[in-house]
Design brief:
flat; 8 helices; two-stranded parallel sheet; 82% helix
Length: 254
Amino acid sequence: MSLEAEEMSLVDHLTELRRRLIYVLIVFVAGLVLGLFVAKPIYLYLIDADAAQGFVLHAFSFWDGIGMYVKIAMAVSLVFSVPFIVFQLWAFISPGLRPVERSAALRYVPYVFVLFILGIAFAYYIVFPMALSFTISITRSMGLEETYGIAEYFSFLFGLVIPLALLFELPLIVMFLTKLRVLNPLRLRRMRRYAYFALVFIAVVITPPDFISDFLVTIPLLALYEFSVFLSAFVYRRQLAEDAEREARYVKAE
């Protein structure tokens, strides 16, 4: 291949990448507009959490109210954008995949949405009330007067929910990378101690500084990793069987 052809190939790839980024931006903006329409009922639902009862949320800036609607709209847009982003990523790299890998990877895309919703539910209904109750109890035990801003409330909420929701995509990512033969269960088992350390570190960072909160978040994350190893092993065994069958056909043909 000539240098000119290689350069044209690179230009084509960059053009394709730009086109797909534009698609992602369009979907994100459309989701943002939709999110603005549903922001108020979502806002009323989120501030009605049991752990948030008993104190009044304040606005310390003229932009706090608008800012909350924008944050909620962005979260709504993210829910719809994440599966589309994954699909666009697949579409970008699919020309370099074999047909069987291409069809298998495409089947993973719908589960991105399912796992993201499960992560949001786990973070909001389990982790967030626990974390909020703990921080409030510490504040009250110190005899401090509670004056909470609406901006701080939602920053605290989204700071817990969004990272955990994204971490719930781990099994799907591992399956996809195993299908591409980038990962395998043997490598994942060798990496277990480092992966455990990383997941425990993430759990400690995004939860209040107490053992119970860390424990309740760490255990599901470690379970997710082990589930990812199990799924990787399932995909890997099928790959070995397909390789053996292909080799047997090749030997028989000779």
